[in-house]
Amino acid sequence: MNIYRLLISCPDAHGLVAKVSQFIFERNGNIKEAHHHLNEQNKHFFMRIEIESNLACSFTEFQQEFAQLAQKYQMNWQMNDASKLKRVLIMGSKSSHCVADLLHRGHESEMEAQIIGVLSNHDKLKKLASWYDVDFKKVAIHKNTKEIDMATMMSVVDAFQPDVIVLARYMANYSKGNV
């Protein structure tokens, strides 16, 4: 059984919860969890749904069909396969306690994520990453070559291809072009 996560935000309209729920039901989806909220000030609607499913169509077809409903109600939306672990890159500095906690939680499967690497501007975290069998890269940031060093760091980040970057007490200041 697959688990999908659907996030929606749009202008409020009558019957949105019913329309989305009916759409899911018609495609053999079961709503495992749902939360919705209306911002009364600007009349903007938000919804998060976890769908447990043996979809009657492919994931791609489901998305294409939902796009039609979304367009009708001016929805901003995204849907992802929650059963696929997010690829997490941890960025740390000299302070190791936050990185150690994340690595341990990843090792013990306490996070629904795959930790793919540790990136630091110091060597202090290298042994820790090695102990957890996680790839470690160091990119030192120097005052006189900061722009070049930051570009190097961003190319290392790109090489990891993370879904998520966690700044675990990472203490280097970013340049405007790298934010």
Describe this structure in words.
- The protein is of the alpha/beta class.
- It has two domains: 2-81, 2-Layer Sandwich (Alpha-Beta Plaits), CATH 3.30.70; 86-178, Formyl transferase, N-terminal domain (Rossmann fold), CATH 3.40.50.170.
- The chain is built from five helices and eight strands; from the N terminus they run βαββαββαβαβαβ.
- The strands form two sheets. It has a four-stranded antiparallel sheet with strand order 2-3-1-4.
- The longest helix is centred in the last third of the chain and has 15 residues, at 146-160.
- It is elongated and about 55 Å long.
- The protein starts with a strand and ends in an 11-residue tail after the last strand.
- The model has no long low-confidence stretch (mean pLDDT 91).
CATH class of the largest domain: Alpha Beta
Largest beta-sheet characterization: 4 strands, antiparallel
Within CATH, the superfamily of the largest domain carries the name: Formyl transferase, N-terminal domain
The strand line-up of the biggest sheet is: 2-3-1-4
Order of helices and strands: EHEEHEEHEHEHE
The helix tally amounts to: 5
Looking at CATH, which topology of the largest domain would you report? Rossmann fold
Indicate the overall shape: elongated
Q: pLDDT average, as an integer?
A: 91
Unreliable segments (pLDDT under 50, ≥5 consecutive)?
none
Name the structural class.
Answer: alpha/beta
Assign the CATH architecture of the largest domain.
3-Layer(aba) Sandwich
Strand elements, count:
8
Number of domains: 2
The N- and C-terminal alpha carbons lie at a distance of: 38 Å
Q: What gyration radius follows from the Cα positions, in whole Å?
A: 21 Å
Percent helix: 25-40%
β-strand amount: 25-35%
Multimeric state:
single chain
